[in-house]
């Protein structure tokens, strides 16, 4: 899971950060306000590769090592690793509009606007036969009109953790329905322990779950489809956890940090697989993993996929070289892919064969998480752009926290989401 830190100012050509240029396998290091740079020595091409600032120790050094290894094999190509602190997405939006921006960069999804503005190029030619091995839900946010515009690097798995000892003491079984979850959260709330933590605002981790949990989706092709009685009912039921004060709110760390779970401040938490090693170190085997429970007659459990993918800038002056570099990193070099997924944080490699062969994922809680991912994993498509999602997110907040009437609130929000969706380019 990334950790995005404080925002700093940025013009189109300048930002506060660190860039390392690798030429023929050697690193030329400098703290600089110019992330563009140029090659030297025998290099004919310089690729500028942007990463957001990962929170896991060792990731920056690993990215630099990969770049150095690539230049050893390809001395005509120098790779500059640009590690971007602070508000990565804002900085990227400014830089990627120009030919001087990064040649290769990271995204969570490829929106239609990015395709229309040539911020990305199709990469189906470098994916080739590996396409059938990539997790479909990891690829879907990168795909438009049958073309794939990015290569997944890691899959983040998000699901529920529960404390076995706290559930046992309260006589509560791991919940298998949303109604059970609401009941469990109330019974587990005692003293300094709240029943559930999904985010400090009471909705953060839950928002995206409700359409899937009733067996529906927020979007059906290019039609907004979240204003249904079933989704409204799920929100109304979930609201009880907020109104009966069984939700942990305002904790010093957010849902993606396991602190609330480890401290016992909450008995059930929405969290990510990246937190598993720390939880195991602190709690031993006093925890279990379950999907978010389904609701209603057509309901289904939900595990959400997140993660990062790498794309090639359509405005790059070195598109072919950049595509070969991405192919080498995230499709051909299996050791790098496993190293990046499992040596620093804890993630699932997007390729099925690597996920199946990775030793840390074969046993214990990690295997449970991967099995749940394979059985219940889901994710919104790239059409769920921020402008489309915002009315829904606001509606969920109003329903949960302000007791708004669920179905009318969703219906009005869906009208605004549809208007935003209609404005997205058809690519």
Detailed description of the structure:
This protein has helices at 59-73, 88-95, 112-116, 124-127, 136-139, 164-170, 178-188, 210-213, 229-243, 259-263, 276-283, 319-332, 334-342, 352-357, 364-376, 386-402, 406-423, and strands at residues 17-23, 26-32, 45-52, 77-84, 104-107, 143-144, 147-148, 151-162, 194-197, 219-220, 223-224, 266-272, 288-290, 303-312, 377-378. It is of the alpha+beta class and 427 residues long. Strands 5, 8, 9, 12, 13, 14 and 15 form a seven-stranded mixed β-sheet that branches. Strands 2-1-4-3 form a four-stranded mixed β-sheet. β3, α1 and β4 form a beta-alpha-beta unit. α7 runs parallel beside α9, α9 packs across α16 and α16 (386-402) packs antiparallel against α17 (406-423). The chain is globular, with a radius of gyration of 22 Å. Residues 1-17 and 28-40 have low confidence and may be disordered.
Number of helices: 17
Report how far the terminal alpha carbons are from each other. 30 Å
**CATH level 1 name of the largest domain:** Alpha Beta
Poorly predicted ranges (pLDDT <50, ≥5 residues)?
1-17, 28-40
Query: Main beta sheet: strand number and arrangement?
Result: 7 strands, mixed
According to CATH, what is the topology of the largest domain? Answer: D-Maltodextrin-Binding Protein, domain 2
**Shape designation:** globular
- Name of the CATH architecture of the largest domain: 3-Layer(aba) Sandwich
Compute the CA-based radius of gyration: 22 Å
How many β-strands, per DSSP?
Answer: 15
* Overall helicity: 25-40%
The number of domains is: 2
Structural class: alpha+beta
- The whole-number mean of residue pLDDT values reads 90
